[in-house]
Amino acid sequence: MRPNFFASLKDKQTVMEILKSIAVGLFSNAIDFLLTALFLYAFCHEHYNGFWGVFTGATADGLPYDPPSSSYIIATAIGFIAAVVVNYVLSSIFVFKHGNVGKTKFGFIKFAVFSAVGLGLTSLFNWIGYDVLGCNPWLTKLVVQLIIFFYNFITRRLFIFNAELIRDDEHTIKL
Q1: pLDDT value for 13
Q2: C-alpha to C-alpha distance for 27 and 21, rounded to whole angstroms
């Protein structure tokens, strides 16, 4: 591993990986937001004035509606898990120079473990923002996704798609 991750930001390959990761992250977040909204609508459809009411807050009776925390957290978890699967595939194929390094059983397990930590952080931060602080659930989700993006990129770059971590009996495998 490189001694200083931030020094590697001067490397053109790292910058390209960050830009590709942003594109994949945006796509994954779109899937996350859409599935979160679909499942929130599925759980609480009787309160919303159509599917778009989930996003706009329009309710069938015109009164404000706050979905139960359990519905919001479950819908968030479903959206997040689907986005992780898409992100794993695209990260392996498109984002990281050594994406094939992560296409192992151990690489997937590490990806799943770091994603589970990310899911825990996502759920915790969404709960704090939505229930404790009373913020708008979509604004909360957006801020949390930005935080989790940095966590995801750093952990994936350093611990999953890093060719320097793959070793044979004596030497680092050069890809």
Answers
A1: 80
A2: 10
Alpha helices in 45-170 (DSSP H): 53-56, 69-90, 105-127, 137-159
One-letter identity of residue 4? N
Mean pLDDT for 41-61 is 76
Place of tokens 């599935």: 35
Vertex 168, ends 167 and 173: CA angle to 5°? 60
- Going by the DSSP 8-state scheme, the letter that residue 174 receives in this structure is P
DSSP 102: G
pLDDT in tens, 93-126: 888 876 666 777 777 788 889 988 988 898 899 8
What 22-31 contacts at long range (C-beta under 8 Å, 24+ apart), as own/partner pairs, is 22/149, 24/87, 24/90, 24/91, 24/94, 24/95, 25/87, 25/145, 25/149, 25/152, 27/86, 27/90, 28/83, 28/84, 28/86, 28/87, 28/90, 29/83, 29/145, 31/79, 31/82, 31/83, 31/86
DSSP summary character for residue 129? I
- The pLDDT, as a whole number, for residue 82 is 92
Question: How large is the average pLDDT for residues 58-87?
Answer: 80
Query: Dihedral sign, CA of 73, 22, 133, 139?
Result: negative
